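pasting for ref. prot 1 ->
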Amino acid sequence: MTRLGAAARDIYRREMAAAQSAPSAEQRWRHLERAHIVSQPDPWLHTCNHAAMLSLALRQRDRREALGQVVRLIVAAPGSISGRYPAGNTGRVGAGLMTPMAIPDDLAPLMGG
């Protein structure tokens, strides 16, 4: 299990706060996705991120996304603990559960990339 550094934790907290105050659902998802990328190595933050994603999916009445987030809530902590998570994955249903994705340039230094 990898621990997040202080800079990564700070980015995670800023993205989660931005998600709460974003004016549109599209912007909320973008911030949650960025927080997800950073949170993956940390079991607690990774799980909290998927809980926030589930909450947003439920508010939007998006059944497919909500079901996908329930599955991700179940596997988030074990995946973080074992180091078996797809780097760069945004955490959304459309991204695929185990599909690695490109890490945004500004987040890559935090992720060892």
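and prot 2 ->
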Amino acid sequence: MEPVPQTADAAAFLAADEAVDHEHPLVRATAARLRAQAPDPYAYAEAAYTFVRDTIPHSADSGDPRVTWRASDVLEQRTGICHAKAHALTALLRAEGIPAGLCYQRLTRDDGTDPVVHGLVALKAPGHDRWARQDPRGNKPGVDARFSLGEERLAWVPRPALGERDYPGLYAAPPAVVLTALRQAADRAHLWRLLPTDLPEREER
């Protein structure tokens, strides 16, 4: 699925903001280190993806109670849930001039309970005319997400019968309902009670 940008301003997908703070020195230094080992933009995009997926543990997998949401904090503290890791990857991509944005899925347990909004990244690599979704949340048994500009290799494929879905929107900045939950949570247990279970219709215009 190719997400639909929610703004016609292409520059928005290269901009810095409070969550995707790619002008921060740590983000810049991390990008420069990855770029030094990547001969072209494709190689850099894959290196940035692999770095976020594999070296920053998903806090639910590691049991880390800390909540991060700003890209620079995710890189510094090396922890975060899917949304935080998506912010970090988006920042690293934009730091090297690769347009990137945030997109989302609605997922549930196998019985359709406990719905949650899951965060992804979409990028438009040089020489490619479409947005390609990536899932940097981190692999574990049963999850094998990979970097791909062709066929998607995401962690999960939504199951419509359980109320799961791909949201069509591509956002330059995190939707307010997601960012507010991340910013207000005292710890990860508190965050689970604050995160939205669906994206409001108004967030998808």
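The first strand starts at residue 4 and ends at 5.
The chain has a mean pLDDT of 96.
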